[in-house]
Write a structure and sequence with these properties.
Number of domains: 2
Strand content: over 45%
Helix content: under 10%
Number of strands: 18
CATH class of the largest domain: Mainly Beta
Radius of gyration: 19 Å
Number of helices: 0
Distance between the termini: 50 Å
Order of helices and strands: EEEEEEEEEEEEEEEEEE
CATH topology of the largest domain: Lipocalin
CATH architecture of the largest domain: Beta Barrel
């Protein structure tokens, strides 16, 4: 088993070009397209992030392959040549998609400014092993302009920020007392609203202090 990227002709749906034979024995966990570039993560024992130039549909080219422990299940273009990844960290002594041991959820900020040399600027592993955000991108609230990365984690909802100096840092943790299936975050003006199955929690984005809780 290997991984591949195929580029299709939109009119005929025939393969115009492809890159094959990538990451033998692994499988693709996340993909992000951004203009003339495609990024995807595979996993078996480590997490390679591939950068692929698809400007020429008939001749796509892998320009970089960056290896990091764990794997990303969601990728999102941040800003200023950065790519955010959310996934899992894996215990170094284990590995492989069968029987691997998760060491927690992992946040990664990849530096994709140099397409020939993708790296990671910072990572953070948090002591949570479950989030709907790992399976459903709609569970993630992310906005680089507001410096907000929010997602359900365990029995709560976490809001993070990121800077080059500090890396990832926790802005707020909302304890809901329930697992986060269907929990969603959104912002309106200067407030973040976190909606669970029994309440709406409101945060002021000026200081990320709790403003109100509405039970229903």
């Amino acid at each position: 088993r290997t991984c591949a990227l195929n580029v299709f002709d939109a009119e005929t749906m025939s393969v115009a070009g492809s890159v094959t034979g990538l990451a033998p024995g692994e499988q693709v966990y996340s993909v992000r397209f951004d203009g003339d570039w495609a990024y995807f993560c595979t996993y078996e024992t480590i997490d390679p992030l591939f950068a692929v130039d698809i400007a020429d549909p008939e001749n796509p080219k892998v320009t970089s392959e960056f290896e990091i422990s764990g794997f990303s299940e969601y990728l999102h273009v941040w800003k200023d040549g950065l790519l955010f990844g959310l996934g899992r960290e894996i215990e170094p002594s284990t590995g492989g998609s069968e029987g691997s041991t998760a060491a927690g959820m992992k946040l990664v900020m990849f530096d994709i400014s140099d397409k020939a040399d993708v790296t990671a600027k910072s990572t953070l592993t948090i002591d949570e092993d479950w989030s709907e955000a790992l399976y459903n991108h709609k569970a993630i609230l992310i906005d680089a302009g507001k410096n907000i990365i929010g997602f359900p984690a365990g029995e709560g909802y976490d809001v993070y920020g990121w800077t080059a100096e500090r890396g990832f840092f926790l802005r707020a943790r909302i304890e809901t007392g329930a697992w986060g299936w269907g929990m969603r975050g959104l912002y309106i003006g200067n407030y973040i609203y976190v909606v669970s199955d029994s309440k709406v929690t409101i945060l002021d984005t000026d200081d990320f202090i709790l403003s109100a809780v509405v039970d229903y």
